[in-house]
């Protein structure tokens, strides 16, 4: 299996969601089985010592300050300065986002608050400091974890069943540290990871390329160690607040396990997994199930829910625009938690008694089960809702409405129903925020993921049967029986040997039957669902070409009718827009092809079409003179580079400044090199020779074909284009360029300019000089030499432009653009600003990936 196939499978399997849902199911199963003990939890929490609770809250604030301090000194480690208030805001907001974003805390490290984006701190430094923050978090876990493990092994006679868990922790800690060290030293794991995901190599190199301040790094590590101790202290305080005996071993091991699950959780930040594992460990150390649950809940209030609430307040106070985007997702997440808790806690008997007068008992039980399933669905939906997906919004509205009804039909829980109503109101009020449709993450997860879901459900059911208390079925199930019952259940076969005795037993059978049926529904849904919205080809390409000849004004107009583009025609058929779809964006090449007076009207038409399709818009390589049309529509702009244009009649090889160029051309001539113009149509032998040069260039210079605003080597197209080649004494082609139409008045341009690895110095100059002569013979005046990305920003207009300017001047990955600029400076008589036009600043987070995707070659078979 090749690497691309591995990557394809990784993309199709939503393992993080499945794993987290499995943990949630197990947690719900555990708490549901201990439902009677839950009756005592709320009174126990109410009786807890307020002085210890206040101390726990105080430690939470200290914990937040320590986390902020880690950011302050992480930035200082890379020679940058981050104010403390901004550090607190950064931690609270990233902590909140980590609950909803895939890959949790790792992905949240990419988020930058507006205050940070407006500061003088460069984006590269933010990523480097964030990497140090994450690394020291892992390092401190190792520093605290190893002594804990050694200490617990010294008390092995007291830890019994915890020994395998401690060994697992040691192995996991060592593995995590080894992986991190491998990335830092570019070891074996790093090389394997880069083979799987080659596109991340430059990003990793950029993040790791900094001069480290060891003193500030040490301070960061010390603060991170203090964070670990504050977490252990929270467990001690939870035990003391509830009036229970304090177990050092339980606190140490319980904390280490919870942090590992939290740090490694790919989804929902360990929700369910932490509660389940911590409660289990506490029971191993002698606490009753009820006491273990009490400690766990109070601990999670200190460590998880309080920082989460402060993060919500932080967004509401300083980031209102993003807050309104986050608020529905947060509310959906909270409603999901409320739904689950509502089914786990006993109902109010008076209300149930009243409800039975009007509703059958079976409907009440079914409503209870459905509320639980709705809660699980809401938790998963929240993570997709934050990405702006319309389908997630539709699911959220539907499930919120069902939750509202079911809370009333399960136990007249009008309080929960009121919360569902408020969530539903907020969702309806913010529907314009959710425009992205047909996202594979929600609609086309695929057959492989469906099969993975079956496996997850079988694992859950097997564990459920095995750990069932004997009182529920009168049988102590073995592993073999548990697996057999689980397999029969997943295939919807009757389990006649199962005879539930208790209410929980009956609920468990009903739940696994519904879960199995839902898995099959999902499987068939993914099987019959069309793979993805096709980027359909237009049928009237000749009409688009006719409009291009009438209204074309740009050097990139030629690429607007290539096979990789979708075409949107104006209602009056007097113009069109060429675009590609990627990551929820309609990326438009340049601007509309139509008359000047119709451009704003056409932009508005396309805007309406994109809204119907659930797409956001971005316009790539827009000329400065055309910004008027977009500014009137309140679009934003970002200078992305400059295009070099040459007046060929002003160019001369005479003069002192052209001496080195003359010398280079003369040297080529003496060695027997000469340029030759071949006019279309080209013969097969010539095309084959050009293909050899192109392949050599791609391989030798580690280039990849790119499209959208440029072309790639395509035999079916180049055969119809004039080419200029450079040949050696043996008549072998060592370099070439192909000439393509330029729709600017009196203009012409070229697309590919490629050479072999052994081509002599100055070969590119020879091709351009010959191209100038070609243009003069054809009576052209303007030669478009193409775009130099990132260049030309002297006075940055915004923070984004400052980042672009910094990347062009300082980041090694982009320094070749400076050489490209120097080459074209020799010929250019003017430089034209080119812009990326977009809707809002939040789009800039997602647009780089979308642009990279549309520039990938369109999947079609090229001749040759």
Brief account:
This protein is 61% helix and 10% strand. With 864 residues, the protein is α+β, with helices and mostly antiparallel strands.
Q: If you had to describe this structure to a student in words, what would you say it looks like?
A:
By secondary structure, this protein is of the alpha+beta class. The protein contains 36 helices and twelve strands. Strands 1, 2, 3, 4, 5, 6, 7, 8, 9, 10, 11 and 12 form a twelve-stranded mixed β-sheet that branches. Helix 5 packs across helix 17 (289-317), helix 15 runs antiparallel to helix 16 (273-284) and helix 18 runs antiparallel to helix 22. The model is unreliable at 1-14, 102-108, 157-162, 438-446, 527-539 and 860-864 (pLDDT under 50).
What descriptive keywords fit this protein?
12 strands, 36 helices, 61% helix, single chain, alpha+beta, 12-stranded mixed sheet, 864 residues
């Amino acid at each position: 299996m090749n690497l691309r196939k591995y990557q394809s499978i990784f993309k199709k399997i939503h393992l993080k969601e499945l794993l987290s849902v499995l943990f949630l199911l197990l947690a719900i199963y555990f708490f549901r089985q201990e439902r009677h003990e839950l009756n005592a939890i709320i009174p126990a929490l109410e009786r807890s010592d307020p002085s210890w609770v206040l101390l726990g809250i105080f430690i939470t604030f200290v914990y937040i300050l320590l986390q902020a301090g880690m950011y302050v000194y992480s930035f200082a480690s890379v020679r940058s300065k981050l104010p403390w208030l901004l550090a607190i805001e950064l931690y609270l907001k990233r902590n909140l986002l980590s609950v909803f974003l895939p890959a949790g805390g790792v992905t949240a490290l990419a988020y930058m608050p507006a205050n940070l984006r407006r500061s003088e701190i460069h984006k590269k430094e933010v990523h480097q400091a964030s990497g140090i923050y994450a690394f020291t978090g892992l390092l401190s876990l190792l520093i605290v974890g190893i002594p804990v493990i050694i200490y617990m092994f010294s008390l092995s006679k007291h830890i019994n069943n915890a020994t395998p868990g401690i060994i697992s922790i040691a192995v996991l800690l060592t593995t995590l540290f080894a992986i991190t060290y491998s990335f830092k030293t570019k070891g074996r794991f790093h090389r394997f990871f880069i083979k799987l995901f080659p596109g991340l190599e430059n990003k990793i190199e950029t993040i790791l390329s900094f001069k480290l301040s060891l003193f500030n790094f040490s301070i960061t590590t010390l603060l991170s160690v203090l964070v670990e101790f504050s977490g252990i202290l929270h467990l001690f305080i939870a035990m003391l607040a509830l009036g229970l005996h304090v177990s050092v071993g339980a606190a140490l091991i319980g904390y280490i396990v919870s942090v590992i699950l939290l740090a490694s959780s790919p989804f929902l930040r360990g929700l369910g997994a932490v509660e389940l594992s911590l409660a289990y460990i506490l029971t191993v150390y002698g606490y009753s199930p009820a006491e273990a649950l009490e400690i766990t809940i109070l601990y999670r209030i200190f460590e998880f829910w309080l920082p989460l609430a402060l993060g919500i307040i932080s967004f509401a106070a300083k980031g209102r625009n993003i807050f309104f985007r986050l608020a529905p997702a947060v509310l959906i997440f909270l409603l999901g938690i409320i739904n689950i808790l509502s089914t786990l806690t006993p109902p109010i008997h008076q209300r149930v008694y009243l409800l039975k007068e009007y509703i059958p008992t079976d409907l009440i039980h079914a409503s209870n089960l459905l509320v639980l399933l709705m809660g699980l669905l809401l938790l998963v939906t929240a993570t997709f809702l934050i990405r702006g997906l319309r389908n997630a919004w539709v699911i959220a509205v539907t499930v919120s409405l069902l939750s509202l009804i079911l809370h009333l039909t399960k136990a007249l829980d009008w309080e929960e129903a009121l919360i569902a109503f408020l969530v539903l109101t907020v969702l309806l009020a913010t529907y314009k925020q959710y425009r992205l449709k047909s996202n594979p993450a929600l609609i086309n997860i695929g057959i492989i993921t469906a099969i993975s879901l079956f496996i997850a459900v079988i694992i859950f059911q097997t564990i459920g049967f095995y750990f069932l208390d004997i009182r529920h079925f009168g049988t102590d199930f073995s592993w073999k029986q548990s697996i057999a019952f689980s397999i029969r259940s997943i295939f919807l076969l009757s389990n006649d040997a199962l005879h539930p005795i208790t209410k929980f037993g009956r609920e468990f059978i009903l739940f696994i039957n519904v879960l199995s049926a839902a898995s099959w529904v999902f499987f068939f849904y993914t099987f019959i669902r069309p793979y993805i919205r096709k980027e359909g080809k237009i049928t009237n390409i000749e009409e688009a070409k006719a409009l291009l000849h009438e209204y074309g004004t740009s050097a990139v107009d030629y690429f607007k009718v290539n096979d990789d583009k979708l075409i949107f025609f104006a209602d009056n058929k007097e113009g069109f827009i060429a675009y590609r779809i990627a990551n929820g964006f309609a990326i438009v090449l340049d601007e509309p092809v139509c008359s000047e007076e119709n451009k704003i009207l056409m932009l508005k038409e396309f805007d309406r079409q994109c809204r119907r399709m659930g797409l956001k818009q971005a316009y790539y390589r827009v000329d400065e003179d055309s910004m008027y049309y977009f500014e009137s529509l309140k679009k934003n702009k970002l200078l992305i580079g400059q295009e070099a244009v040459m007046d060929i009649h002003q160019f001369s090889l005479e003069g002192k400044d052209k001496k080195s160029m003359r010398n280079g051309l003369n040297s080529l001539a003496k060695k027997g090199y000469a340029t030759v113009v071949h006019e279309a149509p080209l013969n097969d032998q010539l095309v084959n020779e050009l293909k050899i040069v192109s392949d050599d260039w791609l391989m030798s210079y580690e280039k990849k074909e790119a499209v959208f605003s440029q072309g790639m080597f395509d035999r079916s197209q180049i055969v119809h284009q004039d080419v200029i080649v450079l040949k050696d004494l043996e008549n072998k082609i060592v370099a070439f360029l192909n000439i393509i139409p330029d729709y600017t008045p009196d203009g012409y341009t070229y697309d590919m300019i490629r050479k072999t690895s052994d081509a002599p110095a100055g070969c590119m100059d020879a091709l351009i000089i010959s191209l100038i002569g070609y243009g003069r013979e054809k009576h052209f005046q303007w030669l478009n030499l193409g775009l130099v990305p990132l260049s030309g920003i002297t006075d940055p207009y915004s923070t984004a432009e400052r980042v672009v300017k910094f990347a062009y001047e300082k980041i090694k990955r982009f320094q070749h653009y400076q050489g490209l600029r120097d080459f074209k400076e020799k010929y250019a008589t003017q430089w034209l600003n080119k812009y990326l036009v977009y809707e809002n600043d939040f789009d800039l987070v997602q647009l780089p990936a979308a642009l990279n995707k549309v520039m990938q070659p369109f999947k079609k078979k090229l001749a040759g």
